[in-house]
Amino acid sequence: MQKPIQLAILASGNGTNAQQISEYFAQSNDVRVNVIVYNKRDAYVATRAQQLGIDAQYFNRHDFFETDNVLHFLQDRGVDYLILAGFLLLVPDNLLRAFPNRVVNIHPALLPNYGGKGMYGHHVHEAVIANHEQFSGITIHVVDNRYDCGTTLFQARCRIDANDSADDLAAKIHLLEKAYFPRVIEAFVLNRPMPVAEL
Ligand code: GAR
User: Fold this and answer.
1) Sequence spans of domains, the chain
2) Is the pTM of this model over 0.85?
3) Do residues 119 and 46 make contact, with C-beta atoms less than 8 angstroms apart?
4) φ, ψ for residue 18, nearest 5 deg
5) Whose CA is nearest to atom 11 of ligand 1?
6) In whole angstroms, what is the distance from residue 167 CA to residue 165 CA?
7) In sequence order, what E strands does 65-128 have?
8) Which end of the chain has the smaller Cβ count within 10 Å, N or C?
């Protein structure tokens, strides 16, 4: 039997996506969450990792951008793919070179709209609501060295009702993330057909 594909999840905050991905692959023979890497000392994702029994490792900005510490750590652990799940730093060039086409990000909007620097988490939902959009959604894409660019793998939409607040929209987006992000990762790394979005 082939060795399972090894994922490293990179996260900066709460870690709901990191948890959902870890739970999804817990029973898989083909894909394994090897480690969760985080870049904010007090990130709640570290607590989630502990509860899930998954190794977690903190690295600071210096480690990421001025050294090869993160790269060597990931290589030593035999990681194959990097999954950005609410990871708010640009991915450094040394990682992009070492993992070509093997870095995947989720963005909580329909890129190319509402992407770019500063557009993360709640900021995205507030901007979408302020513009009275009728739809938002998620974009899952391969990462290059710009914010929120790179080949799109998958998008799914949700409807925004007239009275929806940014919090309401965030809840809808989290449901989409839960429904699709783990399955899209699985399809991508195993070279299988992508799930089909409902809306
Ligand atoms: C998620 O909604 C993710 O799409 C978003 O941050 C949130 C992290 O939540 N990512 C971005 O905005 C990237 N530009 P989580 O920590 O609970 O998974």
Assistant:
1) 1-100, 107-190
2) yes
3) no
4) -55, -40
5) 120
6) 5
7) 81-84, 103-107
8) N
125 catalytic per annotation: no
Q: What is the pLDDT of residues 27-76, one digit of tens each?
A: 999 999 999 999 999 999 999 999 999 999 999 999 999 999 999 999 99
**Amino acid identity, residue 120?**
Y
Q: What is the pLDDT of residues 73-119, one digit of tens each?
A: 999 999 999 999 999 999 999 999 999 999 999 999 999 999 988 89
Q: Choose, from 72, 107, 125, 141, the residue flagged as catalytic.
A: 107
Element (H, E) at 52: helix 45-52
Enclosing H/E stretch for 33:
strand 31-38
- The pick from 10, 17, 146 for probing ligand 1's pocket by mutation, whose C-beta has the most ligand atoms within 8 angstroms, reads 17
Superfamily of domain 107-190: Formyl transferase, N-terminal domain (3.40.50.170)
Q: Closest ligand 1 atom, CA of 123?
A: 12
User: What distance in angstroms lies between residue 174's CA and the mean position of ligand 1's atoms?
Assistant: 9
Q: Which residues line ligand 1 (CB under 6 A)?
A: 11, 13-17, 85-86, 106-108, 120-121, 124, 173, 177
Write the single-letter amino acid at 62: H
Which atom of ligand 1 lies closest to the CA of 170? 2
Measured from the CA of 108, which atom of ligand 1 is nearest?
Answer: 4
Query: 1-100 and 107-190 share one CATH topology?
Result: yes
